[in-house]
Amino acid sequence: MEKILEVNDLHVTFSTYGGTVKAVRGVNFHLNKGETLAIVGESGCGKSVASNAIMRLIPDPPGKISGGSILFNGRDLTKLSDKEMRRIRGVDISMIFQDPMTALNPTLTIGSQLMEGLRQHHKISSDHAKKKALEMMDLVGIPNPEERLKQYPHQFSGGMRQRIVIAMALICEPELLIADEPTTALDVTIQAQILELFEKIQAGTGVSIILITHDLGVVAKIADRIAVMYAGKIIEVGTKREIFYEQEHPYTKGLLKSVPRLDLKGEKLTPIDGTPPDLFSPPQGCPFTARCPMAMEVCDKVYPFSSELSDTHHVDCWLQDERAKQLLAEAAAK
Ligand code: SF4
Ligand code: MG
């Protein structure tokens, strides 16, 4: 499969008066053309920071991409000038955020905002831009597009506004769409509609999607593969089936146990005890050690190697590593 994006050993830090926060600590992942990769984890795990880094939207200072590379169609985005990056943003890579209102200008009609996005990047006539805007409104399922182009954001419901934001993100036909908690602000019925819309758009345009979310229900619906982040690291990655049914990392197991499941009514949810480590001085070893029911002596000393359970399934946990088993056996023999 052809890769559209390859992130290698990405590090992002933020300087504060209290010290340096290591928000993303050596993250590796890739995205194949036309697929949806979900990056999941609790708030503060670094998933939004990692996706903002791809867009080069880390405010510098205080933030900084302090290491690694981000290859988009083979070009390292970390090496591009701000001007080159502006040309990529919104055209080749688009981003959708949680709150549609932050992406919309309340003083401009929907039509002018859609058309402006397009005309900023392409030299086209206003007739052509309008035609394209109408097509996009239709694609995202907004009825009476001709009428609605003349209206302002406050005249739309939350769900309709998010559809407009999606239309704006797609109007330049990007190859990569990054959606950061795109349905979190919406009620459940609208959420489901928006997720269906993502699927429909992907089937129609072949756009590759990175979906950032803390909501495993969203992931179950539309992800092809899932990367689980914890304390600035991807601790497990696999296909949707591997993560939901064959997950091996104790944190992933805990995360899945803390999610309500529609098919198991009445089953009690078990939240994971404890809190993630302080990212001012993250632990040397496995960052989950303090919360992990399976933790061994080696865990808090050395970060686990990545074990390859299949071509697509990788996990960073000593339980999967023969070398740790050997250490344990040696310790038991003493
Ligand atoms: Fe638990 Fe150790 Fe695995 Fe970390 S490496 S998840 S502490 S068993
Ligand atoms: Mg976030």
TrEMBL record:
Gene Ontology annotations for the cellular component aspect, listed alphabetically: plasma membrane
> What CDD domains has UniProt attached to this entry?
ABC_NikE_OppD_transporters
Q: Which molecular-function annotation in GO is an example for this chain?
A: ATP hydrolysis activity
**UniProt keyword list:** ATP-binding, Cell membrane, Membrane, Nucleotide-binding, Transport
InterPro entries, sorted: AAA+_ATPase, ABC_Ni/Peptide_Import, ABC_transporter-like_ATP-bd, ABC_transporter-like_CS, Oligopep_ABC_C, P-loop_NTPase
**One Pfam family hit:** ABC_tran
Q: How does it sit in the membrane?
A: Peripheral membrane protein
Q: Which residues form the ABC transporter domain?
A: 5-256
> From what superkingdom does this record's organism come?
Bacteria
Membrane keyword on record: yes
One GO BP on record is: peptide transport
Q: Where in the cell is it found?
A: Cell membrane
Q: Which NCBIfam families match?
A: oligo_HPY
Q: Which family does it belong to?
A: Belongs to the ABC transporter superfamily.
Q: What is this protein called?
A: Dipeptide transport ATP-binding protein DppD
UniProt source species: Lentibacillus populi
GN (gene name): dppD
